[in-house]
Amino acid sequence: MSYLYDLWDDFISLLFPRLCYACGNHLGRNENLICTECYILIPRTGYHLQSDNPVEKLFWGRCRIEKAAAFSFYNRGSRIRNLIHNLKYKGIRDIGYELGRIYGLTLKDSGFINDLDAIIPVPLHPSKERVRGFNQSDIISQGISDATGLPVNSSALSRITVSATQTKKSRYDRWTNVEGIFSVTDPGYLKGKHVLLVDDVITTGSTIESCTNELVKTEGVRVSVAALAVAPL
Ligand SMILES: [Zn+2]
């Protein structure tokens, strides 16, 4: 019976090949979304184990962050870049959830999340979220939450003005166009909490900086940061 099932399975995968979203190779029967090779070969930064790591240093003198880490490196043609592209522009939400879950387990095992109270996804502008249908940081946060048990609060912080598509702008413009675009909408919830701010990719850090400067206006709020990837710094 299982032979017939395997045969049927092979037949279906001929018609509808299941491909790895990181490298494009065929997935094996027991693989889902990401092939085993990619899962192993995605380079980990290890920054969650390293204080004063490059992501933390990026924010020195800009905003008050307790600790910061990123799962992998956002290099051209890298597996993580392909995965995040498939998440954001092809709408494969499961990728965000799965990467969040994988990173969440790492953060939990290392004790990185021990003194944290909640996860705050970096908000997308509502109009952008309507077009995309979801906020990728939200999905990643759900994965981290499932692995760590930390609650996600997607409504305590919101985005208030449109910023032009950041990827099309120069590095200098990206530095300057995110001031004052976030607003705390639930200070009662945030008060006294240590939150994990979650984003997909950290490039200049200006988005995180802007969110953090808004969050710490609420009494007793401390901010740490986790992202799926960090661009070469
Ligand atoms: Zn692969």
Describe this structure in words.
There is one protein chain. The chain has 233 residues and is of the alpha/beta class. The protein is 40% helix and 15% strand. It has ten helices and six strands. Strands 1-6-5-2 form a four-stranded parallel beta sheet, with helices on both faces. The protein has a two-stranded antiparallel sheet with strand order 3-4. β5 (194-202), α10 and β6 form a beta-alpha-beta unit. It is elongated. It starts with a helix and ends with a strand. The model has no long low-confidence stretch (mean pLDDT 91). Zinc ion (ZN) binds at residues 20, 22-23, 25, 34-35, 37-38. Zinc ion binds at residues 20, 22-23, 25, 34-35, 37-38.
Layout: helices, strands, pairs:
Layout: H1 2-15, H2 36-41, H3 54-58, E1 68-73, H4 79-89, H5 93-110, E2 118-121, H6 126-132, H7 136-148, E3 157-159, H8 171-176, E4 182-184, H9 187-190, E5 194-202, H10 206-215, E6 222-230
Parallel strand pairs: 1-6, 2-5, 5-6
Antiparallel strand pairs: 3-4
The protein binds zinc ion (ZN).
Zinc ion binds next to helix 2.
Structural key phrases:
single chain, 233 residues, alpha/beta, 4-stranded parallel beta sheet, two-stranded antiparallel sheet, 10 helices, 6 strands, elongated, binds zinc ion
